[in-house]
Structures are given as structure tokens and as C-alpha cells.
């Protein structure tokens, strides 16, 4: 009876069976349990242990620790934009750790044309993204067999990732053919509405003068012909902002009680390495970094030219930075006392390198200065939106040629484009 009671699904300690322990069988079962749990009756309990073996398998086991899935994605990441960031965000979702290869300057020249940003600047931008765990500098443009084996054996890469748009070598072959052949390739959805080619086109058509601080736009109604307006309109962003995309980029966290909130604002146009470094410096001064991104009209009114990237595009670029916790979309130009109270701001900071302003006599930081919570921090990289745009304008013919080549391939993509699930 005692053995039957043990084998019942109701268990030993239910009241219906507990009384049976006072019989001989109950004593034997009790001895066996004590033997298993304490080893005290080791010599006596051994004959009864086989009855317990099936039940030992029901005990919780310590989970085996699996190696994290590592995925690899490469790119030029020249003129970093939210499309690059979204591609890397999607790639990270396919694994646990994301390793990013930044293609060398020489490989970019050979396959696409001259890069706008240096390798150092591109590494800073990629390393500053919140989804990136490791960076490989000077990666090849083509996934050769030798490099693929290096990825698998040295970097423990499980899958190689690329977008659904084709990446072709100069001879017309697929740069990821080998990865696909060995079954270690995964695809993500291309982010619509932006590309480095598109941004270069915006710059070439928008600016007609390149002097720092005095760049004028050809989008001013008093200076344009109808034909020029049509060209500029054709280069405006095709990005369709959604609340879901902002949520995907956002940390979704508020500052903890008592956190030191640091605030910094700006245009953050053509998001570059200088922006990453100043945001990193600002984040080190507190527990939570709040960034104000000014709207398009405010920038036009005060600097004399419209931003190349519109408000939502710039917001996503800032949100993608690993040092940023929250963004005010269309932040006011002047930091008011009410704003400081609303967001519980402890410190307002501003960098030493800024774009020129056409408005004289208005200090947007007068209130935080009067409250003793303003600080100027050193900009470690003397880069501005104007200086980046100037590089393109200085090499107008080279980039125009590069764009014509790339635009043809992008036009083919959009002509043959089909819906791809996931984003």
C-alpha cells in the first residue's frame, strides 16, 4: 500500500495517504526518502532507490549556458543616417550580439567613389549606435571566402546580415553570394526614404555657396526659378515618419527619482562624429541625457538656411545614439524656467563648436545661466554640418558622378521593389 501511495500523482503528503506511513510499507518508503535526501540510511535504502529514479528526472535542472548568437553586418556608413541605424537595429534583433564591419576607404573608392567621411569619423558614428556591440575597421566590400572564414572562426559569427536591396560588385555579381551559398545569410528590410546618395543629392542641389556661416539655400522663394524649385522638391525626403518607428528607436524609460538630468539642444543636422562626441561628454555629467532637437523653421529663421535632414529624420538619428535617453522633438530655442521645472533639469550644457546664428542679442541660455545650472563643454571634434557639406561641394564633380552611378541602381531597386515583411 505504501508503494502505491508513493506512485500516486497526488503525492505522499496528501491526507488520504499519510496514514499509510504507519504501516510496514510506509516505514520502508519513509526510510527510502530519508536515504535519498540525507544519505543517513545509505546502506539500508539502496534496494528501494530504483523506484525513485523516474521521479528524480522531474526535479528542476540547471539550464545549460548557451553561447550568444553573434551576427555580422557591414557597410560604408558614409553620411550616417537613420536608415543605417534602423538596419543595424534590425540586425541586432536576429541575434544576441551585433558585430559591424566598416568598409575601408580604399574599398569604397574602388566600388562606389570617394567617401565623404574618414574612417575615424565613420568608426565613431557606428560605435556610438546603441545596438552595436563590436566594430571591425577596414572590412572588405565583398564577403570573400577568406574573410567569411575569418568571421566564422575568429569572430564566432553565426549569420551575415544585409538588406533586401541588392549589393552588387563592379562586375555585377552579388557581394554576399558565398554567405548565401553556405546558408549563413539572413536578410532585413531596407529603410525607405533615405540613402547616402539621396543626402548627397540634397546637398548638391540645396547649397550654392559654401562659406562657413554664410551658406545660402536655393530654396528661398525670392531666389529660385521654377525649374530649380522642381529640382529641389525632387530631392526632399520621402521618409514617412510613424510613431512605431520612434518607439523602436526610443529607450522608453523615464529618469529615476533623484536622477541628475542633463539637457543639451541643437539642430543635429547631418548627424556626424562631432555630435556623437559632444553627446558622450554631456551624458558623463549626469544620469539621464535629454536632448532638444530644434524644428526646421527655427533653424531657418536663426541660421539663414534650412536643415538638410528634416525634424523627424534628425530626431531618429539622435535617438539612435547610445548616450541619449530621451528627445524633445521640436524643442524651443530658448530654455525657459518652466521647461527646466517640467523636465527636472539639473544642468544645461552647450558645446564650444556650433553653427553660426543670424540672430544677434538673444541668449537662449539666459535663464539656466541665471540659475547657475549652465555649463559649456569642450567639443573634441571641430566638425559641423557646414564643414561636412563643404567637403561634398569642394568635390562637386566627383560626387555628382558617384551619385549618377548609384542613383541608377537605386532606381532599379524601387522599380522592382516588393513588400518584405518585418522592419
From TrEMBL:
Residues 72-201, 263-352 form the Cytidyltransferase-like domain. CDD domains: CCT (cd02174), ECT (cd02173). SUPFAM superfamilies: Nucleotidylyl transferase. Pathway: Phospholipid metabolism; phosphatidylethanolamine biosynthesis; phosphatidylethanolamine from ethanolamine: step 2/3; Lipid metabolism. GO terms for biological process: phosphatidylethanolamine biosynthetic process. Keywords: Lipid biosynthesis, Lipid metabolism, Membrane, Nucleotidyltransferase, Phospholipid biosynthesis, Phospholipid metabolism, Transferase, Transmembrane, Transmembrane helix. Belongs to the cytidylyltransferase family. This is ethanolamine-phosphate cytidylyltransferase.
